[in-house]
Write a structure and sequence with these properties.
The chain is mainly alpha-helical and 124 residues long. It is built from six helices and three strands, in the order H-H-H-E-H-H-E-E-H. The longest helix is centred in the N-terminal third of the chain and has 21 residues.
C-alpha cells in the first residue's frame, strides 16, 4: 500500500483542529462511538469467523455450528451479540433459523482484514 500524504489524508479523514466547531466534534465523537462498538463486536474470533462464513451467503445456525466446530450455545451467544449490534439478521423457516449479513459493513471490513492478514498467506 502506498504512503498517503497529509493532503490525501485530509480528503479521507476529518481534520480536527482549533477551527473545528463543537457541533462537528460532537458528530465525530458520536460516529467514533458507533465505530468503536462495531469494532468491539467483530473483535472476537468466533464472531469474526461467523461473519467470514456469512459473507458467502445466508447460513443456518446448524451450518455455522458445523463450519466453526462449535457447540450450539457458543454459536448462538455470538450470533446474539452480532444481532444486537445490527450486523446480522435472522430469518426463521419452521424450526430452522438462518442468518445473513444486515449490510455491507462487515464485508468491507473483512476485505481489509483479508488484505492485511491473509492475502499472501496460506492461513486464509
Amino acid at each position: 500500500m502506498e504512503d498517503l500524504t497529509a493532503q490525501d489524508l485530509a480528503t479521507v479523514l476529518p481534520v480536527i483542529d482549533d477551527r473545528t466547531s463543537q457541533e462537528e466534534i460532537d458528530r465525530i465523537v458520536t460516529k467514533a462511538t458507533l465505530a468503536s462498538n462495531f469494532l468491539k463486536a467483530i473483535s472476537h474470533e468466533g464472531r469474526l469467523m461467523i461473519l467470514c462464513h456469512l459473507v458467502s451467503g445466508e447460513k443456518s445456525v446448524t451450518e455455522l455450528e458445523r463450519l466453526l466446530s462449535a457447540r450450539q450455545a457458543a454459536v448462538s451467544q455470538q450470533l446474539s451479540r452480532l444481532r444486537l449490534e445490527g450486523l446480522v439478521t435472522p430469518r426463521r423457516d419452521g424450526k430452522t433459523i438462518y442468518y445473513s449479513l444486515t449490510d455491507e459493513r462487515p464485508r468491507k471490513i473483512l476485505e481489509v482484514v483479508y488484505e492485511l492478514f491473509c492475502k499472501d498467506s496460506d492461513a486464509c
